[in-house]
């Protein structure tokens, strides 16, 4: 009898063992590794022997030269990617940044710690999980702090589309195209220093005192937070008209604001294709925004906000044309205008026309020329401006030689000496972009850049 039970027991044991292995193997790690990427932009700029703090109106679509103010901007993106036996995968992404917006030329004394501007910061930290069986292999979910769906002009360098903040979302495929939904929040007053006030200054006998040591200090109440929220819907990659279309819709709101300043919406359509029928690529977009979404409609972050009078239209088209094996040209045409008010200014209009031809001398040397024209105007009195300050025309011509490991238009790393000439139509317009004397300025610099 015992001999008959042994095979049965062995079979049961084998079945149980195989079940346990199967149950555990689904979550077994197949691959697990780290990736490190990043960006570096070191801009040494001088005019008349002095380092420069201004960007010459570049963030406002007035110039398109090498005018980023950061003397030493460094970013590291670290990603931990894991794949499991059952097809589930996960990414943990951390983006750290130092020096963005700092214009000082620091030395080895370590004086950076005395300046609270552009310190080391964590800009993104999120987890994304995909391949979960009950959600579908094309579906992923994410949560944390991130830059979601960013797009920027090729010569202005301005991000016109993004959702920058803390939130969560889901992304999948519908009819073969990328579809997503996300909720992102941002606090415009985040990082503001605590404020304090003096309540009373009295001596021990109760009489008034002018001695600061006799004063009581009270921390001020921070008050209610004006938290911003964007509910994003997007659908990307729709093939049509020789290219593809991306659609974005953002419903925005802001807490603790009156009914005229607590909501808004923005929408954009982006068309991706070759360079207007020629060899290369372009990205063309139209966006509308109102209320809280006045800033180009789909540009959400701690800078968002606005009232019911705020309405804007945004148009942009940029890309790179491959003319010959050696000659390429980047271009950008951008318009941002108020349909009523924009950033508190009635009838505000901004537009930029810019080109950057690039010639490959050999594999390691590229010659560049950048030319741009920027215009801004508004109703008389906007932001307190009158006379010559109401309307601005800014011209910019720049010559540069890029020493690089790859002389393609986007070849990096590169070290690029350049000379940039900026000319305003009058002194008042020149003051608005940081020119101290006269209506023009010559900037000499060396821009070092790497992507990896």
What amount of the residues lies in strands?
over 45%
Oligomer: single chain
The CATH first-level class comes to: Mainly Beta
Topology order in helix (H) and strand (E) letters:
HEEEEEEEEEEEEEEEEEEEEEEHE
Give the overall silhouette: globular
User: How many strand elements?
Assistant: 23
Number of domains: 1
Superfamily (CATH H level) name? Porin, LamB type
> Can you tell me the CATH topology?
Maltoporin, Chain A
Q: Kindly state the mean pLDDT as a whole number?
A: 90
Number of helices: 2
Radius of gyration: 28 Å
Structural class: mainly beta
Keywords: Cell outer membrane, Ion transport, Membrane, Porin, Signal, Transmembrane, Transmembrane beta strand, Transport
GO molecular function: carbohydrate transmembrane transporter activity; porin activity
Main location: membrane
Organism: Photobacterium indicum
